[in-house]
């Protein structure tokens, strides 16, 4: 299949593109700049020039492909709500373009779209009160024949080249000289290795279900304190509790994520698709990948 991949130069999208090539598909990477286009060509991908902030520039590729995998997202958390809204607008534009085409649209979402405290499952719809739920509104186009699906990603997608939450927490620990956790640190983060997540995206686009929610979850919930302890061990700094009312001053924009209790199940995903995680878990990966030897972010 010819498959348009947005975010193909990114941490997750790059792994998806590599896996698609391994499966003998023909991925076409979305490139905003000439340098991104060159990187995609060097990786063996065809290129479509466009920008996720300009939906028409992305939807113009739809007629030339058999499916779309959308992973690009603006990770400027100072405008997180606006980024979520824009992501939803792009996905709706793509889905409208696909009506009547008998093609598949798979998008990245997040396990944080649902309830907290007990494991979120694939049967739990996204809460409209959570900004990231905008990325799942397009699923309704399944009623118009579009094969729609989302792959919900945990807060921690880890592996070589990670630039997200674990490096951000590591940078904070290095800056403050302490690896901190809010409250008692019992709140849980699910996790997955990026290569396992990439395989699930590829399974989802190949299987082409309608209105499907998949969970790329290898570990249902790791206590945040355990993550903080691994960072402290890796940097050689103490791991300490901080009161909840001091979390924002310590964690900054990461405070709301550091306090998340977001366990998630992938039981339905594994039973339905045959997908199963193969790679090492988060804590082992943190000890075996260069999370601590060089400054993060």
From TrEMBL:
Domain NAD-dependent epimerase/dehydratase: 3-210
Pfam families: Epimerase
InterPro entries linked to this entry: Epimerase_deHydtase, NAD(P)-bd_dom_sf, NAD(P)-dependent_oxidoreduct
Protein known as: SDR family oxidoreductase
Organism field: Parasphingorhabdus cellanae
């Amino acid at each position: 299949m010819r498959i348009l991949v947005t975010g193909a130069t990114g941490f997750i999208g790059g792994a998806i593109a590599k896996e698609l090539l391994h499966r003998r598909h023909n991925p076409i990477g979305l490139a905003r700049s000439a340098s991104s286009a060159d990187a995609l060509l060097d990786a063996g991908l065809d290129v479509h020039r466009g920008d996720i902030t300009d939906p028409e520039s992305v939807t113009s590729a739809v007629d030339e492909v058999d499916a779309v995998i959308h992973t690009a997202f603006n990770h400027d958390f100072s405008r997180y709500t606006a980024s979520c809204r824009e992501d939803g607008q792009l996905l709706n534009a793509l889905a409208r373009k696909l009506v009547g085409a008998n093609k598949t649209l798979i998008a990245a979402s997040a396990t944080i779209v649902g309830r907290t405290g007990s494991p979120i499952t694939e049967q739990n719809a996204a809460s409209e009160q959570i900004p990231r739920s905008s990325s799942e509104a397009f699923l309704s186009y399944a009623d118009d024949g579009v094969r729609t699906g989302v792959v919900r990603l945990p807060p921690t997608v880890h592996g070589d080249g990670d630039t997200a939450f674990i490096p951000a927490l590591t940078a904070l620990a290095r800056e403050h000289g302490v690896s901190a956790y809010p409250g008692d640190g019992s709140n849980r983060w699910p996790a997955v290795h990026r290569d396992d997540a990439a395989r699930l995206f590829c399974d989802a686009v190949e299987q082409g279900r309608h209105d499907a929610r998949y969970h790329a979850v290898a570990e249902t919930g790791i206590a945040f304190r355990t993550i903080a302890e691994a960072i402290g061990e890796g940097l050689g700094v103490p791991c300490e509790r901080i009161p909840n009312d001091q979390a924002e001053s310590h964690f900054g924009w990461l405070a709301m994520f550091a306090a998340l209790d977001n366990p998630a199940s992938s039981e339905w995903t594994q039973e339905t698709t045959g997908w199963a995680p193969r790679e090492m878990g988060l804590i082992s990966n943190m000890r075996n990948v260069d999370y601590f030897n060089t400054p993060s972010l």
